[in-house]
Amino acid sequence: MKVTAAHGNNLKYLSLVTLTLQNAILGLSMRYGRTRPGDLFLSSTAVVMAEVVKLVTSLVLVYLEEGKHFGRLQAALHQTIVKQPLDTLKICVPSMLYIIQNNLLYVSASHLDAATYQVTYQLKILTTAVFAVLILRRRLLPTQWAALVLLVVGVASVQLAQTGEDGGTAATRQQSMPPGDGPEQNRLLGFSAALGACFLSGLAGIYFEKMLKGADISIWMRNIQLSLLSLPFGLLTCAVNDGAQLASRGFFFGYDGFVIYLVVLQAVGGLIVAVVVKYADNILKGFATSLAIIISCVASIYLFDFSLSLQFTAGAALVIGSIFLYGYDPATAKGAKSIGTRPSAKSLAEAEERLLAEKV
Fold first, then answer.
1. Is residue 337 situated within a structural domain?
2. Number of domains, the chain
3. pTM of the entire predicted model
4. For residue 58, what are the domain limits?
5. pLDDT interval class at 46 (50, 70, 90)
6. Average pLDDT score over the chain
7. Between 256 and 175, where is the model more confident?
8. Distance in angstroms (rounded) separating the CA atoms of residues 327 and 222
9. What sections of the protein cross the membrane (predicted)?
10. 180: in domain
């Protein structure tokens, strides 16, 4: 019994480290990739390649689930995708929304410093909660509504901290960064893109969670469906937004080792989180997100000449507090006998559904 408890604690610590690094490193890497000197890759192509990597990885995982048998893999794909056309068509909606969301995240990372981006993107908690109430008829606790108010106030405080001062702020220092081939910094565009990404994240996540209810399909097979249907939308986005540049420069213009790393991080990172999230409760996930915000702030100071103001710190603290408050359930806290209580199979399934719906 002691060995089992120790093993469970090790998995929780592993989950904490994995979730923290995934949340922090991805934002920092996207920001660096969009502002570094040199040829600037097309973000629309990076989104497509991330879906390709995710598709291949999920295919390998389903192949392993089917006992390393190609015949069973083919049969499973045929049964899930071809024989259920209506279910497959329903996946088109979140697939399209996720492609637009991922493109907006690149726009946001191009115009917002990593710390502001990390804090602002937590508004997806608000949009997810609103759509959960509207679509799933889910009831929120009073503490959760209070958390959402704190979240909005915190994000607003962070944004005002970046635009309310004229000299010596992160906004002006951002403009004085060594110029590469990246886009000219526009905080309003970056913030608008982040808001759009949060809106789409909430809508697509709740829509997909509703679809997952009662479906006997593995998380990896769902990822195959999503990625497979996301590719046409992604290629269409490339043609519409960057058609001229693709024709003159090619699909892989600006790609190097770092861009490949960024694509793999974005694709595989979310799948790794899908594995460890079942060992992470709301408090642990809150810690991971909070640590990621702190890491992003500290790293931005050294990497991007970010200026940490008192107002930004207060706003980030409100956001961190709202994350913990939103995940706190008084009834569960009173009923729990110990911190090491193992979650039920139903709670694990719901956690997997939410994680897949977030698709990160």
1. no
2. 1
3. 0.81
4. 7-165+185-328
5. very high
6. 80
7. 256
8. 26
9. 40-64, 119-136, 143-161, 188-208, 228-246, 258-277, 284-304, 310-328
10. no
